């Protein structure tokens, strides 16, 4: 009761609040729109844009769109630390002219970002590997769009980007914090090192459960003969069962070693039913290898003239090869030589 009486005084309350706010810590997270936690930082003091920028700068590839409660503060702090980081227009979607501000307030202007769905071709210099764009925007969270007094912040609304409609879940972070609240008591009783270890462990299992739930949902939709796996960017893609790796037989041990080195250095990756031919090159050691039955079947499918010529079959870096690209190498009737297209495809491309 005495504490309640003391805190009823506004002057006393403000003094106590300043001390607690200045010393209260917590943890800051960065999540994807589906709620998977990508970054975590433990704070000794109250969170600020600096903490989230520290996390973003630790990433190998800076994201094209960052959604934050105080987007203007994040963009200003980022451009002070690293000029031009959020550009163009200081991370806004449009140039902050009176006309653009008026149209954005009335909902009469939209900013299309097609590279969010299809990678930009040709990609910008230092562009993101998934989008190909080098632009970086700082946008306001839906729940905090009305908190700003700056008129130019209307150009940071998510609604201005049609490609983001229905994609951003602004509640995912709040849902995470709500679910983690039950762990506060025992975590606060541990030492700092134990606290960090347990928190990371809990979030790891949280991410695994999130991913497994999505995989289970997709498995109910896909046919039974279609498998799911991750591509080289960690995204789940649907794919056909993989064919076995050919062993073959070379003329001597040197050719066998060369063939083994070729397989190791090719760094092949699967993208659904698309094969990634990253750093793959022709090599004499693989010319004499015999194809397995499964590979013969895949080769026949690739050269089948009755199927769609636009079907995607392989990927080299960011370039997707279709069936017509393989036809352009020449079919049996077009080849007058010892090596035909079947020898080009025997390097484990399927």
UniProtKB/TrEMBL annotation:
Keyword presence, Signal: no
Region (Disordered), start-end ranges: 246-268
Stretches that traverse the bilayer: 20-40
Biased composition (Basic and acidic residues): 257-268
Record has Membrane as a keyword: yes
Keywords assigned by UniProt, alphabetized: Membrane, Transmembrane, Transmembrane helix
First and last residue of the signal peptide: none
Protein name: HMG domain-containing protein 3 HMG box-containing protein 3
């Amino acid at each position: 009761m005495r504490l309640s009486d003391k805190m009823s005084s506004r002057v006393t309350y403000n003094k106590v609040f300043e001390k607690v706010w200045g010393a209260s810590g917590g943890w800051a997270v960065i999540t994807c729109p589906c709620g998977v936690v990508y970054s975590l930082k433990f704070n000794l003091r109250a969170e600020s844009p600096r903490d989230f920028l520290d996390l973003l700068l630790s990433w190998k590839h800076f994201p094209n769109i960052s959604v934050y409660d105080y987007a203007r503060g994040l963009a200003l702090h980022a451009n002070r630390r690293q000029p031009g980081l959020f550009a163009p227009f200081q991370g806004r979607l449009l140039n902050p002219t009176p006309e653009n501000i008026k149209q954005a307030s009335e909902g009469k202007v939209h900013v299309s970002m097609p590279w969010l769905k299809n990678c930009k071709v040709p990609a910008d210099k230092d562009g993101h590997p998934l989008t190909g764009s080098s632009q970086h925007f700082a946008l306001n969270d839906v729940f905090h769009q009305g908190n700003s007094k700056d008129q130019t912040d209307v150009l940071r609304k998510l609604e201005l980007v049609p490609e983001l409609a229905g994609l951003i879940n602004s509640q995912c972070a709040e849902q995470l914090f709500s679910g983690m609240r039950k762990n506060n008591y025992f975590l606060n009783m541990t030492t700092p090192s134990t606290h960090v270890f347990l928190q990371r462990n809990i979030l790891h299992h949280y991410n695994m459960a999130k991913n497994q739930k999505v995989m289970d949902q997709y498995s109910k939709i896909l046919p039974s003969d279609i498998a799911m796996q991750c591509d080289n960017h960690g995204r789940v893609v649907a794919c056909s069962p993989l064919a076995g790796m050919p062993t073959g037989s070379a003329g001597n041990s040197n050719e066998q070693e060369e063939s083994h080195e070729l397989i190791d250095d090719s760094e092949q990756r699967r993208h659904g039913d698309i094969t990634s031919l990253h750093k793959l090159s022709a090599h004499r050691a693989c010319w004499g290898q015999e194809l397995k039955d499964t590979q013969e079947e895949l080769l026949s499918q690739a050269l089948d003239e009755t199927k769609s010529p636009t079907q995607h079959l392989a990927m080299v870096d960011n370039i997707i090869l279709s069936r017509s690209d393989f036809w352009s190498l020449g079919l049996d009737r077009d080849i007058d030589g010892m090596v035909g297209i079947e020898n080009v495809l025997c390097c484990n491309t399927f």
